[in-house]
Amino acid sequence: MLNKKNLFGFLFSLKTAFWLLCALIAVLLCGAVLMPLNEEYEGMGSAALFDWLGEARGSLTWWLWGAMALLAALTANTLFCSVESLIKKMERKKWLLVVSPQMMHAGFLFILLGHLASSLGGMKGYATAFEGSALRLPSGTVLKINSIKIDVDERGFIGDMRADVEFLKDGTALKAGQIAPNRPSFHEGYGVYLKDARTYPARSVLIEVSREPGAVWALVGAVLFSAGTVLLVALRMGQEA
Amino acid sequence: MFSLLPVPLYALSVFLRPLLYAAFGLQAVYLAIRGFETGRMPIVGVHDTLSLLSASLVAFSFPLLKAVGRRRDFFVMLSLTAAMFSLFAFFSKPHAGPLPPVLKTYWFELHVVLSFFSYALFGLGAILGVCYLRAPGDSQGLLGAQYRSLLVGYGFFSLSMVFGGIWAYLAWGTYWVWTPKEIWTTLLWLFYGLYLHARLMGKWAGRPSAALGAAGFLVVLFTYLGVGLLMKSSHAF
Questions:
Q1: Which pairs with CB-CB distance under 8 Å and at least 24 residues apart come from A196-205?
Q2: C-beta separation of B69 from B17 below 8 A
């Protein structure tokens, strides 16, 4: 019978983490094999994950639900193991060596939180725009494309492209800026991206508007994970030297 | 033809070790020349990245030489792996066109360079693991060297994923794209995470974790070459 002690024993266990990781790898492996076999997966990137999951057939999504269930269990295990480890080992002199793996664990959990937030509230939309045209963003703000510049080299390749844009509300300019590949402009939680440009028949750009509410959490997680990793590597190398 | 020169040197270094360092030197010079000619880091396409992987594999073996000692099996595997990657690089067409604007960013360079540094370290981890499995009794140093190699590789790989995520967010509005390449990358990251946890478990310490660390390189090879060749990828430009 599963009593309170057994349950905590299970949650605190490194063995549980190990087998959960094994199961997660197995489930993701199934997904990695299935994805190239079915074109319906190509729609995953154009909507928030949970919106797509609500629409897609169960035969396509079972491994994603499985992965989420395993990640939920792994989250609980990570939290319990990290807290237990900190309580047990903080007395030791080399506390940085105790803290660094827990920073990695915390980073991992923040990254999962970021994925969850984006899977629930993310959105993405595309539009083609010409010089002087305007697009209405989901927030109600109007995005005006004032000018488009495209540099084409002698072989006909696009070397660079950029567009001067302006955010307007009720005819009043709120913000002006320039967008280019890798240089989006952000306004009211939405990112405006320049994805592509054409010079013919008229100068036009492909604009992407996206909202990624989990990005900040994922970045916090990435910084924590990276700091923990660098610290652990430095300490371990120092120990071994 | 310059890119072919390291191949016989790497292969012959099985018999004469200084040739390994000569081949590495030539490959480093080749990469520098290619970078100078193209005006960018030589990290675009299979030709560049295989050359970088081969050179990195040898470069990262230098700090491990003390732990490896005079073990012939280590140097045989290292030389032949470097020769094989260099040979495949020679038969792959170098990327000659201009870079798409989306690739002109430091985030891309950091992402790729750290990925291939980590792949090289994972490769060394596999070689060290195999050496340990061949003679586990007297080779505790090899096990430690494998752990160091894989831990640093895991660190580089994690940083590479972080930089890739930042770049993807700035380029495509999302730090995560649902394609087989991302799933395989996550699998690889989880696999080495599994290795790092396994070696802390009594039953899995020693031979089992050494085998796990060695097997990871098969996942590396499929993530790098298999996914790119067989599947649609967000990493095709």
A1: A196/A161, A197/A148, A197/A150, A197/A158, A197/A161, A197/A163, A199/A150, A199/A152, A202/A130, A202/A131, A203/A130, A203/A131, A203/A148, A203/A150, A204/A128, A204/A129, A204/A130, A204/A148, A205/A128, A205/A129, A205/A145, A205/A148, A205/A161, A205/A163
A2: no
B101 to A153: CB separation less than 8 angstroms, yes or no? no
Give me the amino acid identity at B31. Answer: L
| Residues 6 or more apart in contact with residue A69 via CB below 8 angstroms | none
ipTM: 0.90
- B91-148 tens-digit pLDDT: 998 888 788 888 889 999 999 999 999 999 999 999 999 999 988 666 778 999 999 9
Q: How would DSSP label each residue in B155-215? A: HHHHHHHHHHHHHHHHHHS-S---SHHHHHHHHHHHHHHHHHHHTTSGGGTTHHHHHHHHH
The candidate with the shortest Cα–Cα distance to A220, out of A80, A111, A103, is: A111
Instruction: Name residue, tokens 């802390």.
Output: B200
- Cα dist from B42 to B45, B50, B173, whole Å: 9, 10, 26
Contact A208, A124 (CB under 8 A): yes
- For residues A172 and A195, what is the distance between their CA atoms, to the nearest angstrom? 27
CA angle A113, A117, A120 (to 5 degrees): 135
Residues β-bridged to residue A148:
A163
Residues 6+ apart with CB under 8 A from B142: B67, B68, B71, B128, B131, B132
pLDDT (tens digit, 9 = 90+) per residue, A139-166? Answer: 889 999 999 999 988 888 888 899 999 9
- pTM assigned to the model: 0.92
Half-sphere exposure of B39 (CA within 13 A, CB side): 5
A32·B180 Cβ contact <8 A: yes
* Structural tokens at position B176: 């995560």
Kindly state the average pLDDT of the residues B23-36: 95
Q: Which of A25, A180, A209 sits opposite B187 (nearest CB)?
A: A25
Name every chain B residue with its beta carbon within 8 A of the beta carbon of A218.
Answer: 165, 175
Question: Which tokens go with B19?
Answer: 């040739």
B95-105 in b/e form (b: 16+ CB < 10 A) is beebbebbbbb
Q: Does residue A1 register a pLDDT over 80?
A: no
C-beta separation of A14 from B197 below 8 A: yes
Contact A18 B173 (CB under 8 A): no
Please report residues of B whose CB lies closer than 8 A to that of A237: 148, 152
CA diameter of chain B? 54
